């Protein structure tokens, strides 16, 4: 379910939230007009205030989760870029022909990972890109094995930096796969529907429709949800992780 949700644009999901809020506000308003409270004081007002408070807490909670995941992806990109730079530095200390062969693979790998970060890919194509990355890891491992077999004095450093590259890549891929569980997104949908319905019911019962305030509230909440969902999607959307560390690293090792 999570993978299916992440294949949909954040603005489209946020639009569904906004339409749901507007729809249930209208349903609540009509219900309040048909069944007004018997007394002047509506006892349901406390429930409306409580549901709005819960909505605010849930928005803050999900925003913090999405922002944290975004920051984690950014750190993983920096870590992988640094690992590639360290590995390339070790490769420059090798003797020919291992030096040129390993440097070529590292450049191709860096360009490959940068291209993968630069665009959104469907799940099937993303799997192919991951398999290509693993194939390049195998080529790097083969070059390192040959260099060690010939007695290179930097065998330990070369092995450690190779391990750092593969580990950093696995960590970054895992960070990009992390997203809000669909159950939390469903809970968020219920949290925006309930106060919208109760607010509409109160306005219908009092015969006082606050259209401008209601629409402003719906639009504001919809925009907040859009930002939350956009941060939650690592490979698409308006807010993406900065690819500059990879670009700088590619420029550095291409000289």
How would you characterize the overall build of this protein?
This protein has 255 residues and is mostly helical. The protein has one domain. It contains 9 helices and no strands.
Fraction of residues in helix: over 70%
Largest sheet: none
Overall mean pLDDT stands at 88
Structural class: mainly alpha
SSE order in H/E notation? HHHHHHHHH
What gap, in angstroms, lies between the N and C termini? 45 Å
Number of domains: 1
Strand content: under 5%
Summed up, what is this model?
This protein is mostly helical. It has helices spanning 2-6, 10-34, 45-91, 98-118, 123-149, 155-177, 182-206, 211-232, 244-253.
List the helices and strands and how they pair.
Elements: H1 2-6, H2 10-34, H3 45-91, H4 98-118, H5 123-149, H6 155-177, H7 182-206, H8 211-232, H9 244-253
Helix pairs in contact: 2-7, 2-8, 3-4, 3-6, 3-7, 3-8, 3-9, 4-5, 4-9, 5-6
